[in-house]
Structures are given as C-alpha cells and as structure tokens.
Design brief:
The chain has 16 helices and nine strands. The protein is of the alpha+beta class. Strand 3 and strand 4 form a beta hairpin. The longest helix is centred in the middle third of the chain and has 17 residues. The radius of gyration is 29 Å and the shape is elongated. The two termini are 50 Å apart. 30% of the residues are buried.
Amino acid sequence: MKIKLKEITVRELANGYEDNAEEGVVGFGGKLDIRPPYQREFIYKDKQRDAVIYTVTKDFPLNVMYWSVREDGNFEVIDGQQRTISVCQYVNGDYSINGLAFHNLTNDKKEQILNYPLMIYLCSGTDSEKLEWFRTINIAGEKLYPQELRNAVYAGSWVSDAKRYFSKTGCAAFQIGNDYLNGVVNRQEYLETAIDWISSAENLNIEDYMSKHQHDSNAGALWRYFQDVISWVKTTFTVYRKEMKGVEWGTLYNKYKDVVYDTKILEEKILKLIDDDDVQSVKGIYSYILTGEEKHLNLRQFDEKIKRKVYEKQKGICPKCPKGKHYKIEEMEADHIKPWHEGGKTTEENCQLLCKFDNGRKSGR
C-alpha cells in the first residue's frame, strides 16, 4: 500500500467542477470523482458548510482528505466528500454566506481562498490493501457503506454498468425488487445484495466476485441473474405478503431453483403456519417451507411461569437421568415432549424440564 501526501489548492480542486446530480460530481480538472454516479448525495447543514468556508478564509487547517488512485491515473474521493463539495460549491457561486457569494468578495479575498492549500493523501495499492485502508479511515464525517467502499476499490467498467441497474433512484432493480429487498438503492445496498447472492452461487465472497469481474465491459450477467431470482420468487410464492421483504431470496434461489413446486400446496402450508400460534416469524416461513429448518420460524418458547410449574411437578428431577438426579431450576431447560413438527404445542401439558446435558443430546439427534 502506497500513501503519498499531496498538497493542492482550492483553485486546482474547483477547476472543472461539475455537479451532474445522479450522474455524479467531478472536479480537479475532471480527474477527480467527488461523488460517484448514483451514490447518495450527502448534504451538509448550512452551519457545517459555512464552517468549512470560515476555516478556509481564516487560513485554519482543514482535516486531511483521502483520494483513491485509480488504474487510469484519475482519482476518487474516499474521505472528505462534503468538505470538497462545500468548497467547490462556494467558489462556483452556488450559495452565499452572510449575504456574500464568492463573486461578491474583493479580489484579494478571492485569491486567498483560491490559493488555500488542501492536504490530500493519495492511496494506491492492491485491491485488498486499499479496501482494508479505506475501512480503517472510514471513521469520521458521513460514513461510507461497505459496498460504497468496494465500489471505490474495484472501480471500472463493470461497477459503472452495475450502478446503472442497481444504484439509481427508481432504477430497474428497484422497480422489480423493491417489494422483496431491504436497503437504500443509492447507498448501494441493492447492488450489495445482488452481488452477495450471485457470488455465493459461485462459492465466492463479494470482494472476490468484484475483483473477478472488475474489467468486464458490462454487468449484464448480474442483472439477468437478479431478474431470474425475482421472477422465481414471484412464480413460486404467488401470494405476496409484506413479510416477504428482506428474505434471503438469492440464497434460496441458488439451492432450490430447479425444484418443481405445487404453488397451491405451498400457499396452503404458508396459511397453516401463519395460523400457528407457536410460529413467531412470518418472514421465516418462506425459508422454512423450502429448507425444513425450524430455526427460521422463531418458535414460541415456554415462559417462566410454565417452567416453574413443571419444575415443581417434577420436583427438580430430570426424567432422563439415571437414579432421578435433582437439579436447580436454572440448571434445567424446557423441552417439548411431543416435538413441534409432530404437532406438539408450547403448552404446560407438553412441557418437560431436562438437564442441559440431556436436552442438548436430544436436540442433537
């Protein structure tokens, strides 16, 4: 990892400044990506923004900023986005302070601002080194989300195209997947989810997948995969419920996409589970239906009142232990006599207290 300290002036930074809304913000003669396309636009409050300009006009030092050096020799702001935008907007005449815009200042005050030195750390190195470093410095100001950091490290044609599908307000991924995904589009959370799903299908992590495809000309494969996932969900579970939002659909798709289901039977099972008082997580029903793993249902547990009643009935004796060994109540755990999946309910009549060893042994069968 190479980290080089560079001094530039406000004049150099603001040269070529353009704010193209969701298409991104650039400066430094067009060589600096201040805010990448479709990334959420952070706006300082007036007090914070004005404080930046006050610092500059008084020749007080601003905190050092960090830029990533891209393979093409251009740069991307990793830390210091709002300070950069505040300075450039003021010089560009986008706002005034105390009724004075930049063009209202005397020439000497303009020159003082334009010649103000900014300290920049230029960071270059391997992808893994940069990612580790960016995570380390992501400790102040507006936090970058994990996927925003990855986008900076693996910047290229693939990321740029992927953002077109997954990162713009009202983007294609939002239009077809909003009912099924959590997260904020322009904080890159839809993109992160899609990459996480497709990378797990290839037994890769997100970073490895992005590194593998960094220089692909487009992200068409990722977009087609995402469409397939959402289409599979809609055709497998034909009745939509709000609890379907945020399920790990891609993980389920990767494993069960080739299984043929009777959608009518699936819906009947879902309704039965929703009606079961022991099932505490409706969201988990969809994973349970496919995997059979009860952990997704967050099944109701025996409450303390039932535990105490059963403990007194058993006189503290574990029915599984030889010679009727006695335990304190805190040394025992509540267990269904008839398992839930066999129709057993979480009631006093279906409860027994076992020592932790025997309960663990029973659960492990």
